[in-house]
Amino acid sequence: MTLNVPPSLYAERRARLAAQLGPDGIAIIPTAPEHLRNRDSDFLYRHDSYFYYLTGFTEPNACLVLTADGHGTLFCNPKDPEREIWDGYRLGPEAAVAALGLDEAFAAAELDQRLPRLLENRACVWYPFATHAGLAARVEGWLGPVRARARYGALCPTRQADLCLLLDEMRLVKDVHELALMRHAAQISARAHVRAMQRCARMLREGREVREYHLDAELLHEFREHGAQAPAYNSIVAAGANACVLHYRADRAPVQGGDLVLIDAGCEYDGYASDITRTFPANGRFTGPQRALYDLVLASQEAAVAATKAGARFTEPHDATVAVLSQGLLDLGLLDRNKVGNVQDVIAQRAYFPFYMHRTGHWLGMDVHDCGSYVEPSEVGQVSERRDPLSGERIQDRPSRVLRPGMVLTIEPGLYVRPAPGVPEAFHHLGIRIEDDAVVQAHGCELMTRGVPVQPDEIEALMRE
Ligand code: GLY
Ligand code: MN
Ligand code: MN
């Protein structure tokens, strides 16, 4: 399996999507807008994932229009020698037809003029709802001229439908090309974590000051060294108590010898994300309480991994994690049996919540929190109601998604201990998460991210190197 995605793959995806649009359906899929960072300076451009999935095209200011008969029209930036001096090469509409296997292509500036004609006599307009600011209003704007031509016999579409419904289902199960890219991204990210761990221990051994940004620099170096375009999300490099801040960034805090360091970072390679968290002792040696808490999180991850296989529900790895963490919190004395009862009580009352307040995973793909329903589509009508034991809020539950081979999800249990009455001081300020990326298989799952170890002895050994 090479990493080169054949252009025919995008045409196949478009054909599969077109076949689901219904008679006289039409779909509009814009790419992402460019965003100004500050005066004359843009954020690094990132295409829209739906658009990329159907075209493989990464230029900004583009839009795909697809009709039910499989006819694909691209609107994109025209060739412009002067602009290309500033912004770089543009494919242009003339070359786009052959290069992307499309039927027609026009300059993006022609979109408003051509869209009404393309929408004429169509039954249903599909576009991704609530993902592109202003798109619904633009569709309204394009439908206006169609309605105005009604007296000449033009039919105006009577229905609008959310294209995410179709595309999310397609994207949820990854094909072999996507999995190859995701494995590649995962391997690069795993090496980056190893590199950051080793630099941390080395600098401390040499008596040098270590800051969170030194470790962030190692991650970035390894990502770019191996051709990844960017981090898939803002890297978290959190020393000591900072690890208890779930969305902490890689900042400038000093890393002390006795600290744990939590790094949550993964690269994006050719549009696909990886998402790894490791927690390690800054100087390469876990203390007793650090090791006890780490072993508990690792055991909970092992239970979640064992629960991740085709046929299981998406919630099963989370439930397995919670069962192990709850028992461990009682055993380590972070929860008081006299106050919270036994493990079933801890789970039922969500008494673990102050220490574990996030879910155990999410879909992973082009987006780090990838698209795809977490409810099993065929069972969406089976609603049950319960009251949340902590907030008292009424919650509607629907049967969770059944895992199928080729789905990719993260498995990322953690524990975050803030000082509180009754919580043993030895555990205060420890934040631990272990996160791997799993491909669902028939009888288990493949962990793509184990190029960086999770076993504490292995982490200590590699930090001694
Ligand atoms: N890094 C984002 C997440 O773990 O969900
Ligand atoms: Mn994650
Ligand atoms: Mn993560």
Question: Could you please describe the fold and organization of this structure?
Answer:
The chain starts with 6 loop residues before the first helix and ends with a helix. Helix 8 (176-205) runs antiparallel to helix 9 and helix 8 (176-205) crosses helix 14 (456-464). It folds into two domains: 7-169, Creatine Amidinohydrolase, Chain A, domain 1 (3-Layer(aba) Sandwich), CATH 3.40.350.10; 173-464, Creatine Amidinohydrolase (Alpha-Beta Complex). Strands 6-5-4-1-7-8 form a six-stranded mixed sheet, sandwiched between helices. It is globular, with a radius of gyration of 25 Å. It has helices spanning 7-18, 49-55, 81-87, 92-100, 111-119, 135-148, 164-172, 176-205, 212-225, 288-306, 315-331, 337-340, 343-348, 456-464, and strands spanning 25-30, 36-38, 41-42, 63-67, 72-76, 104-107, 124-127, 159-162, 230-231, 236-239, 260-265, 267-269, 272-273, 276-281, 384-387, 394-397, 408-411, 414-416, 431-433, 436-441, 444-447. The mean pLDDT is 97. Helix 6 links the parallel strand 7 (124-127) and strand 8 (159-162). With 465 residues, the protein is an alpha+beta fold. It contains 14 helices and 21 strands. Glycine is lined by residues 233, 264, 275, 362, 368, 412, 435.
Spell out the key features of this protein.
Creatine Amidinohydrolase, 36% helix, binds glycine, 465 residues, alpha+beta, 14 helices, Creatine Amidinohydrolase, Chain A, domain 1
